């Protein structure tokens, strides 16, 4: 379970900060600004660009989360005047042009210091190394795994060209029997499916001709057991964690609709029971995924890591003893990922308004109510008198404007600064 128990008043953003600390936002803002400057030195000044901040990057990630929940065919639709696309609220927080510029210059590492390909010290992951070096140790330390752990590869969808090898599940790999031996030597026991053409498997297993449902063949060498069991087809497993003599039964539906009990080695049942953790992890990560289309492979990897952090933060909060959700009837209710992501997006956006809100007539009419003369905390130079080169230090002033003003200067000061209040 979680290694850090946060207090009951901790919210979603506190859990994400355990894995994706807020200092990374400062780093991303710094690298984005650096890259923007570098590109403008090469291609000329970009009049639409202005330096970003950690607060804006934080909101930018929140916007990506919203886009993962409310999915539109293209980004422009979030800024459409069509009322059907207004519910996202993105167009109230940022302009489409600004979002385009953030997408264009978004950077997370200074890869300009990376030696060229083929030279000593070249790092193929330099584009995301800074983020990976922070996130990966935190992912490892934030959670103590349970006894049964299901492990598989995670694929990141990218169809462009890459300068390094990718893992392709259909290709033969060197992992197999040696892996199980290495794990056993480290007191880690395992079970998993294996192809029958792997070296080291006994011919009795590889050449078995099992035909009847429930038929099984097992061979043992030391602590390692090879099992071939026939269901609708023959399944072959290696295991070091189950006594081969342990058997159980599984229910199977026949063609005539009847259900029969089929004998089954217990290792098959254990494998089926716990390997679905991989499917659940894939489902969590792919549901409401924030990965956006991009021409650069490293952006897919970055957003993949952010998605992993969000999913793991959700699990940390879900398993936190201080964050059990109670219904009105007092029953416990399971936390859902959608509500976690929605609340996280709200917290990331916070009070960020990259787009200036239009001031309504009602707002203009009520603003004047707050420009009232009050007694300030101490005497200071009157702002209105100082323009006439007269030095007066009244203790009265305007709380809304946060300036000291003589009583007689209050009206002329506001007539100059806020003429709309007197229309």
UniProtKB/TrEMBL annotation:
Cited Pfam families: DDE_Tnp_1_7
Segments forming domain PiggyBac transposable element-derived protein: 15-180
InterPro entries recorded: PGBD (IPR029526)
Highest taxon of source: Eukaryota
Protein's name according to its UniProt entry: PiggyBac transposable element-derived protein domain-containing protein
Organism annotation: Pinctada imbricata (Atlantic pearl-oyster)
